[in-house]
Amino acid sequence: MSTNWFRYASPATFYPLAGTLVPWFAAGAAVLTAIGLYIGLVAAPTDFQQGDAYRIIFLHVPAAWMSMFLYVVMAGWSALALGYNTRLSAMMAQAIAPTGALMTLIALTSGAFWGRPTWGTYWAWDARMTSELILLFLYLGVIALRNAIEDPRRADRACGVLALTGVVNIPIIYFSVQWWNTLHQGATVSLTKSPAMASIMLASMLVMAFAAWFYAIAASLARVRTIIVERERGAAWIAALPEVRGAA
Amino acid sequence: MNTAAATMSPVATDTVWPAIRWAVARDLKLALRSRTELAVQLLFYVIVVSLFPLATSPEKGLLSTMGPGVLWVAALLASLLSLPRLFAADFADGTLEQIALSPYPLAALVFGKIIAHWLTTGLPVAVLAPLLGLQYAMDGEALFVLTAALAIGTPILSLLGAIGAALTLGLRASGSLLALLILPLYVPVLIFGAGAVDAARAGLGADANLSLLGAGLILAIIGAPFAAAAAVRIALD
Question: Is A157 close to B185, i.e. CB distance below 8 A?
């Protein structure tokens, strides 16, 4: 029994599939967030060094993971779109970009609010913070280029080339910033020196990471549905959709 | 339609060198016929560099510390300012379309244009650097390392910049968009370039930084012409 996955490469077949999946992933994200936050905020003990401030990491670390991972996923969809010239892949890349930028912003802001009580400063030119900031610029560049090009097919391919250029550069940027950091700064602050994490904290963080995954999938799928309706609005199957007929 | 595959398809290698030579010669000739434009871009670099002591302090210790960074940031901005010249005029009058239609590989033609762009913007910036570095009270070794780093690093700026310049062809507010797209990608060049001088001043030797810049240059030469050629094709249809 084999399913032909390429069947779902067409917006017309993917649109209802995404519609079915969105509530499941959204519900999964809500449940996982509730569990993760309960473990993180109630069950986990107060850290004897950092007090309660450390609990920000239950939001911060999953957001930071997703921010980097989503850029790679976006570049992967872009590569598919450029290689196979599939519209849906480009739409997926387009749908992921705002969620990725949001995750980067959450990681940066939550990091700042964690840094204030822990390091005594909102911002330090730490290697990870700096590369995360540059990652935010890369996301914003992709989104801005998308908005600047009126023809969606040209925008697809231009953003694809940009995303792939960015993904080649991300490791180089990361290592260059890390090296610059060690050259310039003494070990005033260090994320890596934090004490070994208790397993209950790790559990909360992993649950929250899965919640972030589910949220990102749900948000991207919901957004890609909007993009499909917007871009395929001339197609007959769109006009026949109950939600489109109801709105007209 | 498949632009990426089309630009990377195997071509007869005997067309690559003539294509590069032709593009370099043509763009150099065009650039040298508008010498004022080149001079103005170079002046921009000189002026930006001259502004920093006015904004901070003329104290020699501070100047020699921040000098390499200032010169590199100014080089990045000068490169950014000159990037539209790479394709915009050819795009506006249709020449770029004819270039893309020629039987020669587009990546080679684009590479030639990039070389000409570097010869007329990056190279003068590197050549002027020792003079401007003297204003920043930098000593002989630091000046030498700075010039070497700029000579290796500025071609990377032209190569990466060509991708952004091609992607933003014909768009509204393409200048500021180009800055947003390209400056984050310039970060490693800035770090290794300015870091080379810092390392030399700290007695660590600049070899590691310069080697990394060289590796980046090789990587950019391998990848950027193809990406820029793909971007040109995207802009044209």
Answer: no
Q: Do A179 and B183 touch (CB under 8 A)?
A: no
Give B166's pLDDT tier (boundaries 50, 70, 90): very high
* Per-residue DSSP letter, B120: I
* Tens digit of each residue's pLDDT (9 = 90 or more) over B18-63: 999 999 999 999 999 988 989 999 999 999 999 999 998 888 888 8
The β-bridge partners of A47 are A51
What does the alpha-carbon distance between residue A235 and residue A136 come to, in Å, rounded to a whole number?
35
Nearest CA to B157 out of B88, B231, B75 is that of B75
Question: How high is the pLDDT of residue A247?
Answer: 65
Note whether A168 contacts B223, CB cutoff 8 Å. yes
Arithmetic mean of pLDDT, B210-234 = 94
Number of domains into which chain A is organized: 1
- Using a CB-CB cut-off of 8 Å, the residues of chain B touching A134 are 184, 187
B230 touches chain A (CB under 8 A): yes
Q: Is residue A44 part of a domain?
A: no
Q: Looking at the predicted structure, is the pLDDT value of residue B1 above 80?
A: no
Residue A110 inside a domain? The answer is yes
**Which residues 47-66 in chain B show a CB within 8 A of chain A?**
none
Q: How far is B33 from chain A (nearest CA, A)?
A: 32
Q: How confident is the model at residue A196 (pLDDT cuts 50, 70, 90)?
A: low
Contact B108, B15 (CB under 8 A): yes
Nearest-CB residue to A173 (from B174, B187, B195): B187
Query: How many domains does chain B fold into?
Result: 1
Instruction: Give the separation between CA B207 and CA B196, rounded to whole angstroms.
Output: 8
